[in-house]
Amino acid sequence: CEQVGVSVSQVIMTLMKLGIVTNINANLDEDTALILSEELGISVVIGAVEEEDIDEGIEDFEDKEEDLVHRPPIITVMGHVDHGKTSLLDAIRATNVTASESGGITQHIGASEVKLNGQKIVFLDTPGHEAFTAMRARGADITDIAVLVVAADDSVKPQTVESISHAKAAGVPIIVAINKMDKPGANPDLVKTDLAEHGVLVEDWGGDVISVPVSAKTGEGIENLLEMILLQAEVLELKANPKRLGLGTVIEARLDKAKGPVATLLVTNGTVKSGQSIVAGNTSGRIRLMTDYKGTTIKKAGPATAVEILGLDDVPSAGDDFHVVKDDKLAREIADKRKQKQREEILARNASSTLEDLFSQIKEGEVKDLNLIVKGDVMGSVGAVVSSLEKLSNDEVRIKIVHSGVGAINESDVTLASTAGAVIIGFNVRPTGNVQSIADRENVQIRTYRVIYNIIDDVENAMKGMLDPEF
Ligand code: GDP
Protein backbone atom coordinates (compact mmCIF):
# COMPACT_ATOMS: atom_id res chain seq x y z
CA CYS A 1 0.00 0.00 0.00
CA GLU A 2 2.83 2.37 0.79
CA GLN A 3 3.97 1.90 -2.79
CA VAL A 4 0.85 3.47 -4.26
CA GLY A 5 0.09 6.05 -1.61
CA VAL A 6 -3.12 4.48 -0.32
CA SER A 7 -3.54 3.55 3.33
CA VAL A 8 -4.35 0.04 4.47
CA SER A 9 -7.56 1.21 6.08
CA GLN A 10 -8.65 2.83 2.79
CA VAL A 11 -8.13 -0.48 1.05
CA ILE A 12 -9.98 -2.44 3.70
CA MET A 13 -12.84 0.03 3.80
CA THR A 14 -13.22 -0.17 0.03
CA LEU A 15 -13.13 -3.94 0.09
CA MET A 16 -15.72 -4.09 2.85
CA LYS A 17 -17.92 -1.70 0.90
CA LEU A 18 -17.64 -4.09 -2.04
CA GLY A 19 -18.45 -6.96 0.29
CA ILE A 20 -15.20 -8.72 -0.55
CA VAL A 21 -13.34 -9.01 2.71
CA THR A 22 -14.05 -8.99 6.35
CA ASN A 23 -10.64 -8.76 7.86
CA ILE A 24 -7.23 -7.25 7.35
CA ASN A 25 -5.42 -10.53 6.79
CA ALA A 26 -7.38 -11.64 3.75
CA ASN A 27 -5.50 -12.06 0.51
CA LEU A 28 -6.60 -10.61 -2.80
CA ASP A 29 -6.89 -12.43 -6.06
CA GLU A 30 -6.16 -10.69 -9.34
CA ASP A 31 -9.77 -9.81 -10.12
CA THR A 32 -10.27 -8.26 -6.73
CA ALA A 33 -7.06 -6.31 -7.07
CA LEU A 34 -8.31 -4.88 -10.36
CA ILE A 35 -11.73 -3.95 -8.99
CA LEU A 36 -10.08 -2.42 -5.99
CA SER A 37 -7.68 -0.36 -8.04
CA GLU A 38 -10.58 1.04 -10.08
CA GLU A 39 -12.44 2.02 -6.95
CA LEU A 40 -9.39 3.74 -5.55
CA GLY A 41 -8.39 5.33 -8.83
CA ILE A 42 -4.95 3.80 -8.97
CA SER A 43 -3.46 1.60 -11.61
CA VAL A 44 -2.19 -1.89 -10.98
CA VAL A 45 -0.35 -3.94 -13.50
CA ILE A 46 -0.72 -7.67 -13.09
CA GLY A 47 1.70 -9.96 -14.75
CA ALA A 48 2.84 -7.26 -17.21
CA VAL A 49 6.46 -8.27 -17.09
CA GLU A 50 6.80 -11.83 -18.26
CA GLU A 51 9.01 -14.07 -16.17
CA GLU A 52 11.24 -15.09 -19.10
CA ASP A 53 11.84 -11.52 -20.24
CA ILE A 54 13.15 -10.23 -16.97
CA ASP A 55 16.52 -11.87 -16.95
CA GLU A 56 17.03 -11.87 -20.69
CA GLY A 57 20.70 -11.44 -21.41
CA ILE A 58 21.92 -13.43 -18.42
CA GLU A 59 24.08 -16.27 -19.62
CA ASP A 60 21.95 -19.38 -19.41
CA PHE A 61 23.08 -22.81 -20.50
CA GLU A 62 23.75 -26.28 -19.21
CA ASP A 63 27.40 -26.73 -18.36
CA LYS A 64 29.09 -29.29 -20.54
CA GLU A 65 30.41 -32.29 -18.67
CA GLU A 66 33.97 -31.68 -19.87
CA ASP A 67 33.95 -28.11 -18.50
CA LEU A 68 33.01 -29.20 -15.00
CA VAL A 69 35.64 -29.34 -12.28
CA HIS A 70 35.39 -30.19 -8.58
CA ARG A 71 34.51 -27.28 -6.39
CA PRO A 72 34.98 -26.88 -2.64
CA PRO A 73 32.03 -27.43 -0.26
CA ILE A 74 30.09 -24.56 1.33
CA ILE A 75 29.21 -25.12 4.98
CA THR A 76 26.74 -23.60 7.45
CA VAL A 77 27.15 -24.16 11.19
CA MET A 78 23.89 -24.62 13.10
CA GLY A 79 22.81 -25.62 16.58
CA HIS A 80 21.41 -24.51 19.92
CA VAL A 81 22.45 -21.18 21.41
CA ASP A 82 25.62 -21.41 23.54
CA HIS A 83 26.53 -24.84 22.21
CA GLY A 84 29.61 -23.26 20.64
CA LYS A 85 28.86 -22.36 17.00
CA THR A 86 30.83 -19.11 17.09
CA SER A 87 33.68 -20.67 19.07
CA LEU A 88 33.84 -23.56 16.63
CA LEU A 89 34.09 -21.22 13.65
CA ASP A 90 36.86 -19.32 15.45
CA ALA A 91 38.69 -22.54 16.24
CA ILE A 92 38.38 -23.68 12.63
CA ARG A 93 39.81 -20.40 11.37
CA ALA A 94 42.59 -20.61 13.93
CA THR A 95 43.76 -24.02 12.67
CA ASN A 96 44.43 -22.34 9.38
CA VAL A 97 46.29 -19.23 10.29
CA THR A 98 49.84 -19.40 9.08
CA ALA A 99 52.45 -17.76 11.28
CA SER A 100 52.82 -14.78 8.97
CA GLU A 101 49.11 -14.05 8.97
CA SER A 102 48.34 -14.47 12.64
CA GLY A 103 47.12 -11.35 14.32
CA GLY A 104 46.12 -9.81 11.04
CA ILE A 105 43.05 -11.69 9.99
CA THR A 106 39.99 -10.47 11.76
CA GLN A 107 38.19 -9.11 8.74
CA HIS A 108 34.71 -10.56 8.58
CA ILE A 109 33.08 -10.54 5.20
CA GLY A 110 30.41 -13.15 5.97
CA ALA A 111 32.36 -16.18 4.89
CA SER A 112 35.79 -17.64 5.46
CA GLU A 113 37.86 -20.20 3.70
CA VAL A 114 40.09 -22.80 5.29
CA LYS A 115 42.39 -25.33 3.73
CA LEU A 116 43.23 -28.84 4.81
CA ASN A 117 45.88 -30.73 2.87
CA GLY A 118 45.47 -28.25 0.06
CA GLN A 119 41.71 -28.72 -0.17
CA LYS A 120 39.49 -25.73 0.42
CA ILE A 121 36.34 -25.52 2.55
CA VAL A 122 34.11 -22.43 2.66
CA PHE A 123 32.28 -21.57 5.88
CA LEU A 124 29.41 -19.13 6.01
CA ASP A 125 30.20 -16.98 9.01
CA THR A 126 26.74 -16.19 10.26
CA PRO A 127 26.01 -19.20 12.39
CA GLY A 128 22.50 -20.34 13.11
CA HIS A 129 19.56 -21.66 11.22
CA GLU A 130 17.90 -18.23 11.11
CA ALA A 131 20.45 -16.99 8.59
CA PHE A 132 20.31 -20.29 6.73
CA THR A 133 16.54 -20.22 6.43
CA ALA A 134 16.37 -16.51 5.63
CA MET A 135 18.62 -17.26 2.65
CA ARG A 136 16.53 -20.22 1.59
CA ALA A 137 13.37 -18.16 1.90
CA ARG A 138 14.89 -15.97 -0.80
CA GLY A 139 15.63 -18.95 -3.00
CA ALA A 140 19.30 -19.27 -2.19
CA ASP A 141 20.21 -22.88 -1.52
CA ILE A 142 23.91 -22.40 -1.15
CA THR A 143 24.77 -24.71 1.72
CA ASP A 144 26.17 -28.09 0.75
CA ILE A 145 26.61 -29.48 4.26
CA ALA A 146 25.23 -28.40 7.64
CA VAL A 147 27.51 -28.83 10.65
CA LEU A 148 25.19 -29.39 13.62
CA VAL A 149 26.90 -28.33 16.83
CA VAL A 150 25.64 -30.10 19.97
CA ALA A 151 27.26 -29.45 23.34
CA ALA A 152 28.29 -32.76 24.89
CA ASP A 153 27.28 -31.54 28.35
CA ASP A 154 23.85 -30.28 27.31
CA SER A 155 22.74 -32.65 24.53
CA VAL A 156 19.82 -32.03 22.18
CA LYS A 157 17.86 -28.81 22.87
CA PRO A 158 14.95 -27.07 21.07
CA GLN A 159 17.13 -25.19 18.56
CA THR A 160 19.03 -28.40 17.85
CA VAL A 161 15.72 -29.93 16.79
CA GLU A 162 14.86 -26.83 14.76
CA SER A 163 18.20 -27.00 13.01
CA ILE A 164 17.61 -30.65 12.13
CA SER A 165 14.22 -29.77 10.65
CA HIS A 166 15.70 -26.92 8.65
CA ALA A 167 18.53 -29.03 7.25
CA LYS A 168 16.13 -31.84 6.38
CA ALA A 169 13.66 -29.47 4.72
CA ALA A 170 16.54 -28.19 2.60
CA GLY A 171 17.78 -31.69 1.83
CA VAL A 172 21.22 -30.76 3.15
CA PRO A 173 23.31 -33.54 4.75
CA ILE A 174 24.25 -33.09 8.40
CA ILE A 175 27.58 -33.68 10.10
CA VAL A 176 27.31 -33.63 13.89
CA ALA A 177 30.06 -31.86 15.84
CA ILE A 178 29.75 -33.00 19.45
CA ASN A 179 31.37 -29.98 21.10
CA LYS A 180 32.71 -29.17 24.57
CA MET A 181 34.31 -32.61 24.91
CA ASP A 182 36.82 -31.04 27.32
CA LYS A 183 34.08 -30.48 29.91
CA PRO A 184 33.79 -32.92 32.82
CA GLY A 185 30.05 -33.44 32.19
CA ALA A 186 30.55 -34.39 28.53
CA ASN A 187 28.31 -37.30 27.53
CA PRO A 188 28.58 -37.95 23.79
CA ASP A 189 26.57 -41.17 24.05
CA LEU A 190 23.58 -39.31 25.38
CA VAL A 191 23.90 -36.83 22.49
CA LYS A 192 23.79 -39.71 20.01
CA THR A 193 20.80 -41.31 21.74
CA ASP A 194 18.91 -38.03 21.79
CA LEU A 195 19.75 -37.36 18.14
CA ALA A 196 18.43 -40.78 17.18
CA GLU A 197 15.11 -39.83 18.76
CA HIS A 198 14.95 -36.94 16.33
CA GLY A 199 15.71 -38.98 13.26
CA VAL A 200 19.44 -38.30 13.09
CA LEU A 201 21.15 -41.69 13.17
CA VAL A 202 24.89 -41.44 13.61
CA GLU A 203 27.22 -44.18 12.44
CA ASP A 204 27.47 -45.81 15.91
CA TRP A 205 23.72 -46.17 15.75
CA GLY A 206 23.79 -47.87 12.38
CA GLY A 207 22.97 -44.67 10.54
CA ASP A 208 24.97 -42.77 7.95
CA VAL A 209 25.37 -39.43 9.73
CA ILE A 210 28.98 -38.66 10.58
CA SER A 211 29.60 -37.41 14.12
CA VAL A 212 32.87 -35.99 15.39
CA PRO A 213 33.76 -35.24 19.01
CA VAL A 214 35.41 -31.82 19.23
CA SER A 215 36.38 -29.07 21.61
CA ALA A 216 36.34 -25.54 20.27
CA LYS A 217 38.23 -24.59 23.41
CA THR A 218 41.21 -26.95 23.16
CA GLY A 219 41.10 -27.51 19.42
CA GLU A 220 40.70 -31.26 19.88
CA GLY A 221 39.01 -32.97 16.94
CA ILE A 222 38.82 -29.85 14.75
CA GLU A 223 41.10 -31.26 12.09
CA ASN A 224 39.16 -34.50 12.14
CA LEU A 225 35.95 -32.51 11.63
CA LEU A 226 37.48 -30.79 8.59
CA GLU A 227 38.55 -34.18 7.22
CA MET A 228 35.01 -35.51 7.62
CA ILE A 229 33.59 -32.46 5.86
CA LEU A 230 35.91 -33.14 2.91
CA LEU A 231 34.91 -36.79 2.95
CA GLN A 232 31.22 -35.94 2.87
CA ALA A 233 31.88 -33.37 0.13
CA GLU A 234 33.54 -36.03 -1.98
CA VAL A 235 30.40 -38.14 -1.78
CA LEU A 236 28.34 -35.16 -2.93
CA GLU A 237 30.53 -34.74 -6.05
CA LEU A 238 30.23 -30.97 -6.10
CA LYS A 239 31.11 -29.54 -9.48
CA ALA A 240 31.18 -26.20 -11.24
CA ASN A 241 32.25 -24.66 -14.52
CA PRO A 242 34.92 -21.99 -14.05
CA LYS A 243 34.74 -21.07 -17.75
CA ARG A 244 31.33 -19.41 -17.65
CA LEU A 245 30.45 -15.91 -16.44
CA GLY A 246 30.37 -15.80 -12.65
CA LEU A 247 27.14 -16.21 -10.70
CA GLY A 248 26.11 -16.90 -7.15
CA THR A 249 24.54 -15.36 -4.07
CA VAL A 250 24.91 -12.15 -2.10
CA ILE A 251 25.66 -13.20 1.46
CA GLU A 252 26.09 -9.79 3.04
CA ALA A 253 25.76 -6.18 1.96
CA ARG A 254 26.06 -2.78 3.60
CA LEU A 255 26.47 0.87 2.79
CA ASP A 256 29.92 2.17 3.64
CA LYS A 257 30.10 5.94 4.09
CA ALA A 258 33.33 6.21 2.15
CA LYS A 259 33.20 3.28 -0.27
CA GLY A 260 29.47 3.22 -1.11
CA PRO A 261 27.60 -0.10 -1.42
CA VAL A 262 29.78 -3.03 -0.35
CA ALA A 263 28.61 -6.58 -1.03
CA THR A 264 29.99 -10.00 -0.16
CA LEU A 265 29.36 -12.44 -2.96
CA LEU A 266 29.66 -16.16 -2.83
CA VAL A 267 30.56 -17.37 -6.30
CA THR A 268 28.81 -20.71 -6.81
CA ASN A 269 29.59 -21.20 -10.49
CA GLY A 270 31.74 -19.56 -13.14
CA THR A 271 34.46 -16.98 -12.61
CA VAL A 272 34.00 -13.37 -11.51
CA LYS A 273 36.60 -10.86 -12.70
CA SER A 274 37.37 -7.36 -11.55
CA GLY A 275 36.01 -4.78 -14.01
CA GLN A 276 33.06 -6.91 -15.14
CA SER A 277 29.45 -5.73 -15.21
CA ILE A 278 27.17 -7.33 -12.70
CA VAL A 279 23.53 -7.59 -11.58
CA ALA A 280 22.88 -8.38 -7.93
CA GLY A 281 19.21 -8.61 -6.98
CA ASN A 282 17.71 -5.29 -8.04
CA THR A 283 21.05 -3.52 -8.19
CA SER A 284 23.70 -3.30 -10.87
CA GLY A 285 27.15 -1.88 -11.48
CA ARG A 286 30.68 -2.66 -12.47
CA ILE A 287 33.16 -4.32 -10.12
CA ARG A 288 35.63 -1.57 -9.17
CA LEU A 289 37.50 -3.49 -6.52
CA MET A 290 37.40 -7.10 -5.41
CA THR A 291 38.99 -8.50 -2.25
CA ASP A 292 39.08 -11.98 -0.77
CA TYR A 293 38.13 -13.00 2.80
CA LYS A 294 41.54 -11.88 4.02
CA GLY A 295 41.16 -8.41 2.51
CA THR A 296 43.68 -9.04 -0.25
CA THR A 297 42.85 -7.46 -3.62
CA ILE A 298 42.21 -10.11 -6.25
CA LYS A 299 41.50 -9.96 -9.99
CA LYS A 300 39.38 -13.06 -10.37
CA ALA A 301 37.43 -15.52 -8.25
CA GLY A 302 36.33 -19.02 -9.26
CA PRO A 303 33.58 -21.32 -7.92
CA ALA A 304 33.12 -21.49 -4.12
CA THR A 305 34.99 -18.28 -3.40
CA ALA A 306 33.73 -15.49 -1.15
CA VAL A 307 34.64 -12.00 -2.31
CA GLU A 308 33.82 -8.50 -1.26
CA ILE A 309 33.11 -6.12 -4.12
CA LEU A 310 32.72 -2.37 -4.63
CA GLY A 311 30.93 -0.80 -7.56
CA LEU A 312 27.20 -1.58 -7.19
CA ASP A 313 24.84 1.38 -7.49
CA ASP A 314 22.80 0.31 -4.47
CA VAL A 315 22.82 -2.16 -1.59
CA PRO A 316 21.43 -5.60 -2.53
CA SER A 317 19.91 -7.94 0.07
CA ALA A 318 21.47 -11.01 1.59
CA GLY A 319 20.13 -14.00 -0.34
CA ASP A 320 19.86 -12.12 -3.65
CA ASP A 321 21.33 -13.87 -6.66
CA PHE A 322 24.04 -12.19 -8.71
CA HIS A 323 25.17 -12.63 -12.31
CA VAL A 324 28.03 -11.24 -14.33
CA VAL A 325 26.66 -9.94 -17.64
CA LYS A 326 28.26 -8.70 -20.84
CA ASP A 327 28.03 -4.93 -20.28
CA ASP A 328 26.82 -2.16 -17.97
CA LYS A 329 23.78 -1.34 -20.06
CA LEU A 330 22.44 -4.88 -19.87
CA ALA A 331 23.12 -5.02 -16.14
CA ARG A 332 21.12 -1.84 -15.62
CA GLU A 333 18.25 -3.05 -17.81
CA ILE A 334 17.91 -6.30 -15.92
CA ALA A 335 18.04 -4.55 -12.55
CA ASP A 336 15.34 -2.10 -13.69
CA LYS A 337 13.06 -4.89 -14.87
CA ARG A 338 13.52 -6.70 -11.58
CA LYS A 339 12.61 -3.54 -9.64
CA GLN A 340 9.47 -3.20 -11.72
CA LYS A 341 8.55 -6.82 -11.11
CA GLN A 342 9.07 -6.41 -7.37
CA ARG A 343 6.69 -3.45 -7.34
CA GLU A 344 4.08 -5.54 -9.12
CA GLU A 345 4.51 -8.45 -6.78
CA ILE A 346 3.93 -6.27 -3.76
CA LEU A 347 0.65 -5.20 -5.32
CA ALA A 348 -0.52 -8.53 -6.58
CA ARG A 349 0.81 -10.76 -3.83
CA ASN A 350 -1.74 -13.40 -3.21
CA ALA A 351 0.17 -16.62 -3.17
CA SER A 352 -0.18 -17.92 0.31
CA SER A 353 -0.59 -21.26 1.95
CA THR A 354 -3.75 -21.37 3.97
CA LEU A 355 -6.02 -24.26 4.69
CA GLU A 356 -8.73 -22.35 2.76
CA ASP A 357 -6.55 -22.27 -0.36
CA LEU A 358 -5.72 -25.89 -0.09
CA PHE A 359 -8.79 -27.39 -1.66
CA SER A 360 -8.73 -25.24 -4.80
CA GLN A 361 -5.08 -26.11 -5.23
CA ILE A 362 -5.85 -29.82 -4.81
CA LYS A 363 -8.57 -29.53 -7.44
CA GLU A 364 -6.18 -27.89 -9.83
CA GLY A 365 -3.75 -30.66 -9.17
CA GLU A 366 -1.23 -28.21 -7.78
CA VAL A 367 -0.98 -29.64 -4.32
CA LYS A 368 -0.25 -33.17 -3.31
CA ASP A 369 1.38 -32.46 0.03
CA LEU A 370 -0.11 -30.51 2.88
CA ASN A 371 2.88 -29.28 4.84
CA LEU A 372 2.24 -28.61 8.51
CA ILE A 373 4.28 -27.39 11.45
CA VAL A 374 2.90 -28.50 14.81
CA LYS A 375 3.75 -26.71 18.04
CA GLY A 376 2.24 -27.65 21.41
CA ASP A 377 2.57 -27.09 25.13
CA VAL A 378 3.74 -30.56 26.09
CA MET A 379 5.49 -33.38 24.24
CA GLY A 380 2.58 -35.79 24.76
CA SER A 381 0.05 -33.56 23.07
CA VAL A 382 2.39 -32.71 20.19
CA GLY A 383 2.87 -36.43 19.57
CA ALA A 384 -0.88 -37.04 19.70
CA VAL A 385 -1.62 -34.22 17.23
CA VAL A 386 1.12 -35.34 14.85
CA SER A 387 0.05 -38.97 14.76
CA SER A 388 -3.65 -38.10 14.31
CA LEU A 389 -2.78 -35.72 11.48
CA GLU A 390 -0.52 -38.18 9.74
CA LYS A 391 -3.38 -40.69 9.68
CA LEU A 392 -5.44 -38.28 7.56
CA SER A 393 -3.22 -38.71 4.50
CA ASN A 394 -5.12 -40.17 1.56
CA ASP A 395 -4.55 -40.81 -2.14
CA GLU A 396 -4.97 -37.16 -3.08
CA VAL A 397 -3.27 -35.38 -0.24
CA ARG A 398 -0.33 -36.39 1.84
CA ILE A 399 0.01 -34.72 5.23
CA LYS A 400 3.64 -33.88 5.82
CA ILE A 401 4.80 -32.70 9.24
CA VAL A 402 7.74 -30.48 8.38
CA HIS A 403 8.57 -29.76 12.00
CA SER A 404 7.05 -30.39 15.39
CA GLY A 405 8.09 -29.28 18.82
CA VAL A 406 7.20 -28.03 22.27
CA GLY A 407 6.98 -24.30 22.93
CA ALA A 408 5.47 -21.09 21.64
CA ILE A 409 5.29 -20.42 17.89
CA ASN A 410 8.45 -18.46 17.10
CA GLU A 411 10.05 -16.66 14.21
CA SER A 412 12.00 -19.74 13.20
CA ASP A 413 8.71 -21.65 12.75
CA VAL A 414 7.45 -18.86 10.50
CA THR A 415 10.55 -18.76 8.30
CA LEU A 416 10.46 -22.53 7.98
CA ALA A 417 6.74 -22.40 7.14
CA SER A 418 7.41 -19.72 4.57
CA THR A 419 10.08 -21.73 2.76
CA ALA A 420 8.20 -25.01 3.03
CA GLY A 421 4.81 -23.50 2.17
CA ALA A 422 3.48 -24.88 5.46
CA VAL A 423 0.58 -23.96 7.73
CA ILE A 424 1.45 -23.66 11.43
CA ILE A 425 -0.81 -25.46 13.90
CA GLY A 426 -0.54 -24.37 17.54
CA PHE A 427 -2.05 -26.56 20.25
CA ASN A 428 -2.40 -24.65 23.53
CA VAL A 429 0.40 -22.33 22.40
CA ARG A 430 0.39 -18.97 20.66
CA PRO A 431 2.84 -16.91 18.60
CA THR A 432 5.32 -14.96 20.73
CA GLY A 433 6.00 -11.22 20.49
CA ASN A 434 5.77 -9.93 16.94
CA VAL A 435 5.68 -13.38 15.37
CA GLN A 436 2.09 -12.96 14.18
CA SER A 437 2.98 -9.80 12.28
CA ILE A 438 5.98 -11.51 10.67
CA ALA A 439 3.69 -14.36 9.66
CA ASP A 440 1.24 -11.88 8.12
CA ARG A 441 4.02 -10.28 6.15
CA GLU A 442 5.28 -13.66 4.95
CA ASN A 443 1.75 -14.87 4.16
CA VAL A 444 2.11 -17.74 6.61
CA GLN A 445 -1.06 -18.99 8.26
CA ILE A 446 -1.00 -19.70 11.99
CA ARG A 447 -3.98 -21.55 13.42
CA THR A 448 -4.25 -22.11 17.16
CA TYR A 449 -6.44 -24.62 18.90
CA ARG A 450 -7.38 -25.84 22.38
CA VAL A 451 -9.06 -29.08 21.34
CA ILE A 452 -7.27 -31.75 19.27
CA TYR A 453 -10.54 -32.81 17.69
CA ASN A 454 -10.96 -29.34 16.14
CA ILE A 455 -7.53 -29.54 14.51
CA ILE A 456 -8.35 -32.87 12.91
CA ASP A 457 -11.76 -31.60 11.87
CA ASP A 458 -10.36 -28.47 10.21
CA VAL A 459 -7.61 -30.28 8.35
CA GLU A 460 -10.03 -32.98 7.23
CA ASN A 461 -12.50 -30.38 6.02
CA ALA A 462 -9.78 -28.43 4.26
CA MET A 463 -8.84 -31.61 2.42
CA LYS A 464 -12.45 -32.01 1.34
CA GLY A 465 -12.87 -28.36 0.46
CA MET A 466 -15.42 -27.75 3.17
CA LEU A 467 -13.53 -25.55 5.57
CA ASP A 468 -15.65 -22.79 7.01
CA PRO A 469 -13.97 -19.61 5.76
CA GLU A 470 -15.28 -17.78 8.81
CA PHE A 471 -12.78 -19.58 11.00
P1 GDP B 1 27.01 -20.10 20.15
O1 GDP B 1 25.91 -19.34 20.84
O2 GDP B 1 26.54 -21.44 19.71
O3 GDP B 1 27.69 -19.33 19.05
O4 GDP B 1 28.08 -20.41 21.30
P2 GDP B 1 29.46 -19.70 21.64
O5 GDP B 1 30.49 -20.04 20.65
O6 GDP B 1 29.20 -18.27 21.91
O7 GDP B 1 29.85 -20.46 22.98
C1 GDP B 1 29.05 -20.38 24.15
C2 GDP B 1 29.89 -20.56 25.38
O8 GDP B 1 30.45 -21.88 25.40
C3 GDP B 1 31.09 -19.61 25.45
O9 GDP B 1 31.25 -19.21 26.78
C4 GDP B 1 32.26 -20.46 24.98
O10 GDP B 1 33.46 -20.04 25.53
C5 GDP B 1 31.86 -21.83 25.49
N1 GDP B 1 32.43 -22.91 24.68
C6 GDP B 1 32.30 -23.06 23.34
N2 GDP B 1 32.93 -24.16 22.95
C7 GDP B 1 33.48 -24.74 24.04
C8 GDP B 1 34.26 -25.93 24.27
O11 GDP B 1 34.59 -26.70 23.38
N3 GDP B 1 34.62 -26.18 25.56
C9 GDP B 1 34.27 -25.37 26.60
N4 GDP B 1 34.65 -25.69 27.81
N5 GDP B 1 33.54 -24.24 26.40
C10 GDP B 1 33.14 -23.94 25.15
Provide a descriptive summary of the structure in words:
The radius of gyration is 24 Å and the shape is globular. It has 14 helices and 20 strands. The two termini are about 25 Å apart. A six-stranded mixed β-sheet has the order 3-4-2-5-6-7. A six-stranded antiparallel β-barrel has the order 9-10-15-13-12-16. The protein has a four-stranded parallel β-sheet with strand order 18-17-19-20, sandwiched between helices. With about 475 residues, the chain is α/β, with parallel strands linked by helices. The longest helix is centred in the last third of the chain and has 21 residues, at about 330-350. It has helices spanning about 10-15, 30-40, 50-55, 85-95, 130-135, 160-170, 190-195, 220-235, 330-350, 355-365, 380-390, 410-420, 435-440, 450-465; strands at about 70, 75-80, 110-115, 120-125, 145-150, 175-180, 210-215, 240, 245-255, 260-270, 270-275, 275-280, 285-290, 300, 305-310, 320-325, 370-375, 400-405, 425, 445-450. Residues about 1-5, about 20-25, about 45-50, about 100-105 and about 350 have low confidence and may be disordered. The site of guanosine-5'-diphosphate (GDP) has 16 residues, from helix 4. The site of guanosine-5'-diphosphate has 16 residues, from helix 4.
Ligand types? guanosine-5'-diphosphate
How would you write the strand order of the largest sheet? 3-4-2-5-6-7
| Helix/strand/pairing category | alpha/beta
Q: What is the mean predicted local confidence, pLDDT?
A: 83
Q: Give start-end ranges of low-pLDDT stretches.
A: 1-5, 21-26, 43-49, 102-106, 348-352
Largest sheet: 6 strands, mixed
Shape: globular
Number of helices: 14
E-strand count: 20
Q: Distance between termini? A: 26 Å
Fraction in helix: 25-40%
- Rg over C-alpha atoms, rounded to the nearest angstrom: 24 Å
Strand content: 15-25%
Subcellular location: Cytoplasm
Protein name: Translation initiation factor IF-2
Family: Belongs to the TRAFAC class translation factor GTPase superfamily. Classic translation factor GTPase family. IF-2 subfamily.
Domain Tr-type G: 70-239
